[in-house]
Amino acid sequence: MGAGVTMYGGTSTNTGSKTAQVFPADQETYDLISCAAANVWWITLDENHFTYTLRRVDTDRLFTVTFDLNNPIHVPEKPWGREE
Fold this sequence. Notes:
Elements: E1 20-24, H1 27-32, E2 39-45, E3 49-56, E4 62-68
Antiparallel strand pairs: 1-2, 2-3, 3-4
């Protein structure tokens, strides 16, 4: 898989809730990255955290990252790396 692989992911198959949504892999994901066909992504949100999780079903692969919404970062006036 190279940097050119993009637009993979999933489409929600349910209405979710105010705090969570699940996205199983879709056909485009299977077409681009067949080994990711069993992936499920989900996001959860509460007052303090935004969490993104990826799970490959029937394996031990699990990736989770949590963003602390109470710890804002300083955003520079110019985008990162911008010289102008």
